[in-house]
Amino acid sequence: MNARDLPDIGIPSLVHLPPHSVEAEQAVLGGLLLVGADALDRIEGVIGVEDFYRDDHRRIFTAAKSLGESGKPVDAVTVAEALQSLGQLENVGGLSYIVALASNTPSAANIQRYAEIVRDKSILRGLYGVAIRTQAACMAQGLKDAEKIATEAETAMMRLLDRQGGEPVRAHDAIRGALREIDERRERGGKLAGQATGFENIDWITGGLEPGQLLILAARPSIGKTALALNIADNVASTGMPALFFTLEMTEQELAMRLMSARSGVAMTDMRSGTASPDDWHRLSAVCGDTADVPLFIDDRPGISVAYARAKARKIKRQHGLGLIVVDYLQLMKGPGENRTQEVGGISRALKGLAKELRVPVIALAQINRGVESRIDKRPQMSDLRESGDIEADADVIVMMHRNDGPEWHGLISLIVRKNRNGALGDITLQYDAPRLRFSDYLGQSPRSAPAKRPQRGFDD
Question: According to its UniProt record, which reaction does this protein catalyse (predicted)?
């Protein structure tokens, strides 16, 4: 019995062609041959030569694009001549095929839509390739760990999907949008441009947490950066604006206990030791009821990638809306790169991209190098950011926390605003109730503090 004699039992063929649309590719090429350089302008940035599935179509597109870019006419005859000079005309089906492309395309009116189809099929082929490579990596036991395979697959997929960006905007249209924003701010009568953090001095300098903004909150360990970030996230969520907190270092229960301590005023030591009084227990129970409608979401998966964070943030935004993302902390995330410096740099760029994509402010916590502790002046500088100078370039705002020496600074924390792309620089002093992990505005005169100052040479670029 041979294969033709086997009964058809409904099993699909194991041989599949990759996703493609010959018709859409032919329509794009036909439109180019009909209209020429104008058609090239309409699909510029939508597709490239690598998006065509068939090799002959790649050759024809490359020839047409080269003619258009050099200012020469683009039509069936000129493209055929260009291919003939390269010795490729017969490889694409000869002059007859090129003429047929033009004659079988009634109009170039829909060329951009045809180009989008070609691009989408190309992305699908790319995703299929990622799936195949991921499958091979999974089967090659012992060569790579599961987390690394997942991170590489997520990164590759997001790189493909990131091609689906928007079109450039005319400066005139951008200016009209900026005027609307300025007018809205004027009508607010000097109120915050962004989301309030719940701390007046922070809001005064930063103008609030603005959509698309990446704010780096950096400190040495045990200064209180997680507590401050959680206080801000809780303040934002308490206004009804959903906040998403990625805690890579703690479990959700540990973070919840910190939140309960800050809200109730019950010391963490009493909660952990089980020595909370009946009154403390009453206040802790009240927190549970008070937060029932507070849209603060916690994700405690360790070692996440930005692609994972993006997927979760998109889901939260789609289901509930989203006003803030917090990552605790940046150097614990995973990303691509040949070394740790490149990896951290890629993570900071991706977080900025996430903020812009979702139009949501992102607060990323970061560690400061240990070397700051050996200096006479222990106030952290931007150069103290651990493992990557790219963080400094990617961030819109960099705030560095510092605990000053001396009894006059007891219970106070300095926030040093080292970078503020759209606002002031200087120092902020907050009161910190460390046993209860609770920050509050400090109303007194800060000891030896430098007053916040407006930029003297315009905004930081």
Answer: ATP + H2O = ADP + phosphate + H(+)
